[in-house]
Structure formats: structure tokens, C-alpha cells
Amino acid sequence: MTNTIIVGGFEPLTTIDYPGSLSCVVFTQGCPWRCRYCHNHDLIPADKKTEFDWAKVIEFIKGRKGLLDAVVFSGGEPCLQSGLVDAIKQVKSLGFKIGLHTGGAYPHKLRQCLNYVDWVGFDIKHLPLNYEQVTQTPKSADKAWESLDILLNSGVDYQLRITKHPELISDDQLYRLKKLMKEQYNSKLEVQTCETKSCLDKELTML
Ligand code: SF4
């Protein structure tokens, strides 16, 4: 019997979540981190009851063969799901490319997924020493950097990105982080604008 995943949200059509591909996005429920800027915080509690059912989502996906290029697993933190690898294999067997959005909280699970994933959007939260100022979670930088090493040694296509909230990272820190990514990993860091209308930390909310 295969494990399943807890789905907290579903976007049936998007052009921006997998570069260059028409995709749908499966948002998984649950995340071990508490990023202060998080605007998807309904997806943080792992035990929250949801209105979605993976069996129905996969039926929908089957009906999109030939219409969509890719299915993206996002969150929350997808790698929290015990059934993620099975779900990815299920979708892959239908002929879709697989995208994965992750912050790298579970290096071992990421390593397993990379056998089947075609592209990863990897979220960097801050400079290593400042990680907990964003995630509010001890050792999050250790996990993230271990995952980053696994990803960059895997040969799987990827994008590194950071969500910039002006209260959490200064221009100088961002410059140093970009430099680190370039010099240590030969990688570019994309900067995403922060959605500030409903941050987990209400003090960061800006309308
Ligand atoms: S922004 Fe942070 S807390 Fe929110 S889902 Fe992503 S990793 Fe989890």
C-alpha cells in the first residue's frame, strides 16, 4: 500500500510556478518552520483538517494529460509528507514533469525525491547565521545548507530564490548572500517580493 499526502490547497493552472511550463500546484499541509513573513500560514499546522483529498487531486491531474506540462509540489513544506515520494512517482508515471518547492527542512527526504524530480525551486531564507531570525526554528540553517549541498550535487535543474521582507534582511546582507551563492555555489539568487498583507508575524504585515 502506498503512503498518501495531506493536501492543503490546489491551483489547477499556473504559468509561474515551474519556469517555462504550464503546471498545476499541489500545496501540501504542514511545515516545521515558522517564517515570520509567511503568508501561507494556514498551511503550517500539520494536523489541520483540509477540504482536499489526494485521490481526487490525482484524478483531476489524470484529466490534464496533454494540457499541462508539469505538476508542482509546494507547501507548506512538501518534504514533511511521508507519502511524498509515492505521490511524485504516481504523477511522474502519468508523463508529467515534476516540480518541487522546498526550503530544505528534510535533507534525507529531499535526496529521495531528487530521483524523480525535474526541477526544484529552493527557498533560501537568509545568511546562515541569520536563518533563525526568519524561520524561528533552531538548526534550520543546518538543514537548509545540507539540503542545498544535496540539491547542487544531484544534477537536477533548480532555481535558488529568497523572499525579501525589508524588516528581515538589509540590502547589505542580501548583497553578501548573493555573493556567497555566486562564489561558493556558482549560483544566482533570485529575489522575490514579499507578500506582506498577511504575515505570520503581524508586526511585519504591511498593507
Ligand atoms: S514560508 Fe516558511 S513557514 Fe511558511 S510554508 Fe514556507 S517554509 Fe513554512
Low-pLDDT stretches: none
Largest sheet: 7 strands, mixed
Ligands present: iron/sulfur cluster
Give the termini separation. 47 Å
Number of DSSP strands?
7
Please give the count of helices.
6
CATH superfamily: Aldolase class I
- Mean residue pLDDT: 96
Q: In order across it, which strands form the biggest sheet? A: 1-2-3-4-5-6-7
Q: What is the H-and-E element order?
A: EEHEHEHEHHEHE
- Could you name the CATH class? Alpha Beta
CATH topology: TIM Barrel
Structural class: alpha/beta
Return the domain count.
Answer: 1
- What is the general shape? globular
Question: Rounded to an integer, what's the Rg over CA atoms?
Answer: 17 Å
Helix content, binned percent: 25-40%
Binned strand content: 15-25%
- Which architecture name does CATH use? Alpha-Beta Barrel
Describe the fold and architecture.
The chain has 207 residues and is α/β, with parallel strands linked by helices. It has one domain (7-204): TIM Barrel. 28% of the residues lie in helices and 21% in strands. The protein is built from six helices and seven strands. The protein has a seven-stranded mixed β-sheet with strand order 1-2-3-4-5-6-7. The N and C termini lie far apart (47 Å). The model has no long low-confidence stretch (mean pLDDT 96). Bound molecules: iron/sulfur cluster. Iron/sulfur cluster binds at residues 31, 33-35, 38, 40, 43-44, 75-77, 103.
Topology (SSEs and partners):
Blueprint: E1 7-14, E2 23-28, H1 54-62, E3 70-74, H2 84-92, E4 97-102, H3 107-113, E5 119-124, H4 131-135, H5 140-152, E6 157-164, H6 171-185, E7 189-193
Parallel strand pairs: 2-3, 3-4, 4-5, 5-6, 6-7
Antiparallel strand pairs: 1-2
Helix pairs in contact: 3-5
Bound molecules: iron/sulfur cluster.
